[in-house]
Amino acid sequence: xxxxxxxxxxxxxxxxxxxxxxxxxxxxxxxxxxxxxxxxxxxxxxxxxxxxxxxxxxxxxxxxxxxxxxxxxxxxxxxxxxxxxxxxxxxxxxxxxxxxxxxxxxxxxxxxxxxxxxxxxxxxxxxxxxxxxxxxxxxxxxxxxxxxxxxxxxxxxxxxxxxxxxxxxxxxxxxxxxxxxxxxxxxxxxxxxxxxxxxxxxxxxxxxxxxxxxxxxxxxxxxxxxxxxxxxxxxxxxxxxxxxxxxxxxxxxxxxxxxxxxxxxxxxxxx
Length: 271
Fold this sequence. Notes:
alpha/beta; 2 domains
């Protein structure tokens, strides 16, 4: 056989091709690994492209040529690299963040202004459209600063708020001791007398006796209540207990207003 002559040019091309193949092989291997982690589907595509390049390289009948193999390998690698680069540059579709609406901060609503003109005697709060919203959270209110008519109106509003019906403000001249009339949630007739006293004054037994003489006999009360912005004397409390009159002092009134204490008709005396 005829020995092949050593060709420096061919040898140089061989090592250049080998270096290129190794470099491109490392590049495509790293790119394929990254693509496989992010896009498994693209890893399968790269594998198919590589297989197609190998088959295309052996399909021709002509003798193997380093230059032709290099060209085919380079074209296949460039196509694969472009495909992999497109896959890596494609932004992942992130789920749109769901905005959770914060619940509105509940603020205490202002209580009904007590400076309005008092309704005429006998007028119901339904007629005067003065019903309080049951969902209103009351604020601390100083009932002692109200005048007598405003105080009666405020007590009537508390009765409406807590479920009483047919609420009427009847205080005034000739009221015979009744300032607010209503029907309690239990269906019992409620008669309330309001005593807006200043600091240092106390409701005495004479006040209770006058109210006790009319609340049951004249107004036919099932539940009689005396509400004050002050306090009661010991004889007054003793008389009220004997007659079955519910006494609500300033502290109990504040608790009723805030909802931290019972309504007067829920804890009547046994008389």
